[in-house]
Design a protein that fits this description.
Elements: H1 3-25, H2 29-38, H3 53-64, H4 70-81, H5 85-129, H6 134-147, H7 167-176, H8 180-187, H9 195-209, H10 213-237, H11 239-261, H12 266-272, H13 274-302
Helix pairs in contact: 4-5, 5-6, 5-10, 6-7, 7-8, 8-9, 9-10, 11-13, 12-13
Length: 304
C-alpha cells in the first residue's frame, strides 16, 4: 500500500475509533438517570463520567445543531487533501443542510398537528356522548389533548399554546357562548390545523340545525385518520425511491474510497490538478442537479 493510502487508512481508523468512543459514552443516558433516581445506591463508578455536564451539553448541541457536522467532515477532507476547497464547501453546506432539516421539522410538525386535530375530535365526541354540553365538551377536549402530551404547534415544549395564538379565543368562545366556528376557523390557519375548518363547519351545521354534531365530528375524525393512513402508506411505498436517491448520492463517495484503496490518491488529483478541478466542478454540478431532480420527483409523488 502506498503512503497516501496508508494515511487514508490511519485517518479512517482514527475517525472510527472516535465514533465508537462517542457511541459508548452517550448510550442510554435516560436509563442511567433512572437508575440513579429510583434505585438505591450510586451508579457504577466507571459510568459516572457520563453525567459530566459538558458531555451532556455537547450531546445536546450535537443533536440540536446537526448541520454543523458538515464542518468536522470538511476539516477532515481539508487535512487529507491539503486544500481549502473542502472547507469552503463545508461552510456552504451548513446553511443548506439547516434549511433541509428545518423543512423536515416543519413537515413533521404539520403531521403531528393533524394528528392532534383528529385526537381533539375524538375527545369532543367522547365528552358529548358522556352528556356534556358542546362548549364544555370542546373545553374538556382541548384540556385533554394538552394534558395527554399532544405536540404544541408554536413555542416548543413548555411554551406557547396547542392551537397557537387562537387557543385563547377558542376557549373563551367555548366557555362563554361566543362564535366557536369563527374561532375554530381562525385556529385552522395554523400549520397542519386545516382539519379545524371541518370541525367549524360541523359546529356551524349543528348550531343552525340543532343536532348532528356528534355524527359530524365522528365522520371528520374518521376522514382525518384515513388521510393519515394514506400518507403513511404512500410514504412506505416511496421508501424504496428514497433509498435509491441516497445510494446514488453516495456513489461518488464510494468511488473516492475505492480510488484511495487502490493508491490512486483521488483527492490530490481532484484538488490540485486542472483536470481534476474541472471534473470536480462538473461532477459536483451534475450530482447536485441529479439529487434536486430526484428529490423533486419523489416529493411530487408524496404531494396530495
Amino acid at each position: 500500500m502506498t503512503g497516501g493510502a496508508a494515511g487514508y487508512a490511519a485517518h479512517a481508523v482514527a475517525l472510527c475509533a472516535g465514533a465508537a468512543v462517542w457511541l459508548v459514552a452517550m448510550r442510554e443516558p435516560g436509563a442511567r438517570r433512572a437508575r440513579v433516581l429510583f434505585v438505591d445506591g450510586p451508579a457504577e463508578p466507571w459510568r459516572a463520567w457520563r453525567s459530566w455536564p459538558f458531555l451532556l451539553k455537547a450531546r445536546e448541541l450535537a443533536v440540536e445543531r446537526r448541520e454543523w457536522w458538515c464542518v468536522p467532515v470538511a476539516v477532515l477532507l481539508t487535512v487529507l487533501g491539503a486544500s481549502v476547497l473542502p472547507l469552503i464547501a463545508g461552510a456552504v453546506a451548513v446553511p443548506l443542510v439547516r434549511r433541509w432539516m428545518r423543512g423536515r421539522a416543519r413537515r413533521r410538525q404539520h403531521e403531528r398537528a393533524a394528528e392532534s386535530v383528529a385526537a381533539l375530535c375524538a375527545a369532543v365526541v367522547g365528552e358529548l356522548r358522556a352528556g356534556q354540553e358542546p362548549g364544555q365538551a370542546l373545553s374538556a377536549g382541548l384540556r385533554e389533548c394538552a394534558a395527554g402530551g399532544e405536540p404544541r404547534v408554536r413555542g416548543g415544549p413548555g411554551g406557547g399554546a396547542w392551537l397557537g395564538d387562537a387557543e385563547a379565543a377558542v376557549l373563551a368562545a367555548a366557555r362563554f357562548g361566543g362564535d366557536v366556528p369563527g374561532a375554530l376557523r381562525q385556529a385552522a390557519a395554523g400549520p397542519g390545523l386545516g382539519g379545524l375548518s371541518g370541525m367549524a363547519a360541523c359546529w356551524q351545521v349543528a348550531v343552525d340545525g340543532g343536532a348532528g354534531l356528534v355524527a359530524g365530528l365522528d365522520r371528520l375524525e374518521t376522514a382525518l385518520r384515513a388521510d393519515r393512513r394514506r400518507r403513511e402508506e404512500l410514504r412506505a411505498q416511496l421508501a424504496g425511491a428514497w433509498s435509491t436517491v441516497v445510494v446514488l448520492a453516495l456513489l461518488p463517495v464510494a468511488g473516492l474510497g475505492l480510488g484511495a484503496a487502490l493508491g490512486a490518491d483521488p483527492l490530490r488529483v481532484l484538488l490540485h490538478t486542472p483536470g481534476g478541478l474541472f471534473c470536480l466542478a462538473v461532477g459536483g454540478s451534475l450530482e447536485a442537479a441529479g439529487l434536486f431532480w430526484a428529490c423533486r420527483i419523489v416529493r411530487g409523488g408524496e404531494a396530495p
